[in-house]
Amino acid sequence: MKYWMLLFLSMTTLLHAQTTADGFAIPQAGRVFVFPRDHGSHPEFRTEWWYVTGHLDAQNGQRFGFQVTFFRQARREDGQTLHLHLAHAALLDVQTGRFVHDERLNREGWDATSSEKTLAVRNGNWSLKLDEATQRMHTAATMKGEVLLQLEMEAVKQLVVFGKDGVSLKGATAEAASHYLTWPRLKTTGTVKIGANEHAVSGEAWMDHEFSSSQLEDGQVGWDWAALQLKDGREIMVYRMRRKDGSLDPASTLSVVERDGKVRQLSSDAFAWEVIEKWKSPRNGAEYPIRVRVRFEGESFELRPLAEDQEQDGGITRLPYWEGACDVMDSRGQIAGRAFLELAGYAGDLAGHLSPKQ
Description:
Blueprint: H1 4-7, E1 15-16, E2 19-20, E3 47-58, E4 63-77, E5 80-93, E6 98-107, E7 112-114, E8 120-123, E9 126-131, E10 136-143, E11 147-155, E12 160-162, E13 168-169, E14 177-194, E15 197-212, E16 220-230, E17 235-243, E18 253-257, E19 263-266, E20 271-280, E21 287-296, E22 299-305, E23 311-312, E24 321-329, E25 335-344
Antiparallel strand pairs: 1-2, 3-4, 3-15, 4-5, 5-6, 7-8, 8-9, 9-10, 10-11, 11-14, 12-14, 13-14, 14-15, 16-17, 16-25, 17-18, 18-19, 20-21, 21-22, 22-24, 23-24, 24-25
């Protein structure tokens, strides 16, 4: 579940046949995915994103966390369908604690495109594309004019589809859902340049690709999402849909990707999420639960952030959220892997900020 889903969704939630009232598609069970086409854009759905997060190590021992994301949103205007493209990139220098992030917003056209045939998205001078000959992905992004990411990613584990029958539910109604495709482990190499200092890096990334036409249901105020890559070869994806009364929405789930790539999905009552430590943003006063413990089936994993301040503070969208690199600690206090944690809906009323500035 990704934070920017809410940013790009209209207030319409009425269901008409298999589309929204204004004609956008609703995810259907049993969809047969065809690649490379389904790595590309799906303009029949209102909202779509390609979301890459990961950890990188330099040869000199420096460590980085990174995020590169591309979003497409469709809207009806004067009888036509228009598409907006937003992109976000962030880099955490673990050694210094410095967190740099930037964004792009353009209408579809010369400055922003997303192919319907394969993975090939671009926003300004940022890009993410699949080389079909090598099956490797490439991404590039610059931040604040001084940070440059150039990375190549290769899947070392098969693509997985989260949810039941190809549909990932986020609420009780049929429209509160997405098609959720993930590469849970990508071998990553490339360069990170900060000012005049360039670092050769290697590490692992996680990539989500979701498309949907829905929004938070009435009574839902936000969500917590985490992706864990464990040293033992497993991955864990968990999202918690939070309600206004403080309860956990039954649509919340935890999925385990086994070493052989098979996926097991656990219901909301089969796992526990415990807050260990909160951090208060000096910019907006939001309190984020940045250190948490996840328990399921007798196992326990703590997500420990590599820096407290990994908040993206709104910018064009005016929607602050926390998206950060973490270490994963096991019950003995040993490092069991690495993770990314996303915390949405802690900095005010999300529903009041549905659209970016034009």
